[in-house]
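Researcher: Here's my situation. A collaborator sent me these components and asked whether they could plausibly form a single complex. I don't have experimental data yet, so a predicted model of the whole assembly would be a useful starting point for our discussion.
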Amino acid sequence: MKPHSLISSFNPANEPDTLASHERAEIDASTRLPVLLFFSSAIFWLLIGSLLGLISAWKMTHPWFLDQMAWLTFGRLRPAHLNAVIYGWASAAGIGVGLWLMARLCRIPLIHSKLLISAAIFWNLGVFVGVLGILAGDSRSIEWLEFPGYATPILFVAYAFIGIWAIIMFRFRKPGHVYVSQWYLFAAFLWFPWLYATANILLIWQPIQGSAQGAVNWWFAHNVLGLWFTPIGLASAYYMIPKVIGRPIHSYYLSILGFWSLALFYSWNGMHHLIGGPFPAWMISASVVASIMMFIPVVTVAINHHMTMRGHFDALKWSPTLRFTVFGAMTYTVVSLQGSSMAIPSLNTLTHFTDYTIGHAHLGLYGFFSMMMFGAMYYIVPRLTGWEWPSATAIRWHFWLVASGIILMVGSLSLGGVLQGLALYDPQVSFRSSLDYATPFRMVRGISGFLLLAGHLVFAGHFAVMLLKIGRRREGPALFAEPSKPEAATV
Amino acid sequence: MNKLPLIFLGVFLTFASSWVGLVVYPYFALGRMQPLPDEDTGGFFPPSNPGLAVAGQRVYAANGCVYCHSQQVRRAPLSTDIEKGLGPRQTVARDYLRAQPVFLGTMRTGPDLTNIGVRQPDANWHHKHLYEPQTVTDWSVMPSFRYLYRMQEIQGQPSANAVKGLSGPHAPPPGFEVVPTDEANALVAYLLSLKRNYPLPESPEPPVKK
Amino acid sequence: MTAGFLLLIGGLVFLSGSALFAFYWSVKDGQLDNLGEAAKTIFDDGEPIGAATDKFPSRK
């Protein structure tokens, strides 16, 4: 690898031999530092974020818990939890997976890793300043955009580095087909800065007037999920599932179609968070229709993944990557159909303003996206470090703790939310009843938080052991694992 | 397969349309809306807020009230908000002209606050409630915002602005009083300013149901 | 007004422009010509179709 200058990188014609080096091992090794940097900071924020979430959850049933200090009040811990998880964990994990996939799919070693390392440092600095700012009382209270105005530019700088890098990598890719995962990744890398900049300018730097803020707020918040996390999660699934079971995606045509219909329908969805709100009726209606139309991309993805997996489900027994990824893929179907149904006005009446929405958000961001990221990390990290994961038992504990945790959380919040919604709707029922109905379920949710945190601690410990290379070394380089026959069930 | 380009083209245009519909349109249409002059008093609907209430919005944001309290009244039959007494009429875009930021909210863990200034016009009630919600409603799950108040020794006469009516375990010890900080005063001024019961032509009051 | 306006219009032009360009490029480059073969591009001699590339760490 010859060193590249930033300027010359925009013009691949000057670049003689990038395409010559294409050994997979070399590609993986080249991504080691930046990807591991993003992964380890993501896991750090995952722990912080789950702790903040756990405390917030218990405060909902025990309001006197830690109520003496301003920075520990529920109204600050909750946004701190959300932002630590969204920007600290999920985005950083997604960027890490995205970088590795980009290098693999461009079929060239990662170049300009210093750009990415600076990006990782800036990103963490931004999240750190932002979370502290929220706890200190500078929260904007604009959902998903609580970071104070002095934190967001730092994130944006980090982001700009990554965007520039993505364009450079794409320019230098080895000629050939651009795989569907790359479409997803590239779109996510380009959509996100546009979303983030618009929302920050129109809501924080030069706030627009009145209820238009609500429209921009939810256009942003929903698109972060739909046009940032979802494409990265699906990019990972479209690579991991075929690679792990050794079988191409069932219908590549459907996968491309799914990509574009996602962009089409998802971008309009956000306003379904504001059904009945102070907006022209057509804006809400358009969002409701688009939300229901999400059925199309979701079903194409579901069919595609199912047909690819068909006959290979026994692989779930031996592949950690596949088990997490397939859990995420199935949740994607469930959570998307649930989301579509929640946009139907008669059902929305019941679920709006209740814990049901919170359950839905966790199912999407955790059950789908975070599980996808765990799966990808189980695949990627051994290939970067040259060490296999030391303990199958730890992986199993991780899986069962977080899987049962998220199912318990979403189950309890959904049930409690429906009861709460019924109470909030019925004019004969007092407001107090809506609390009485929700409280036992919130307790259960509080318990599920312990399961998730425990699972994360297992994962973080395992990851640390892996980085420090403590313990038994697996035979042969992890990257070139023997094509294996499915082993006997070990679960 | 040859229809793919056509599908793509449609997708691009529709994607850009969400930007037009959900961002550009509100920017121009909702963003330029003006308050309505009130011919009887020479004032405006919605009325402008005192400076303290404007400062109170920052306190409301900093302490995350919006995560449990919505500020919107939706129409029937989409909701029973009006029947439940959240307000006399549906709230519309013009109601939020003076809000910065707009706290529409997505959760009702606590009651809606669109018209809290109408329902609870007493400043002391709000101070008591913020200081210790359970003294007002014993089943409340709202956390105490005690950190917005100062406990101090009474010097001679009790302060005029001391919070009155604190009883039981939450009462200050004898010889002490609880006084609101500037932040608490701003927050209460903001809460008292939340009155969306003035008439707007675009949102007529529905007839009261029996 | 001005910053917001530039952002809105600029965003629209940039976004539609880049999307149309991406589309134009993908058609011209033949990215959409042979989707059946394209699905196989992530496999190579080292990790061929039909071989699994991930497994649980062995228990030994």
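Model: Some features of this prediction you could bring to your collaborator: Residues 4-30 of chain B form the longest helix (27 residues). Helices of chain B lie at 4-30, 51-62, 116-119, 123-131, 182-193.
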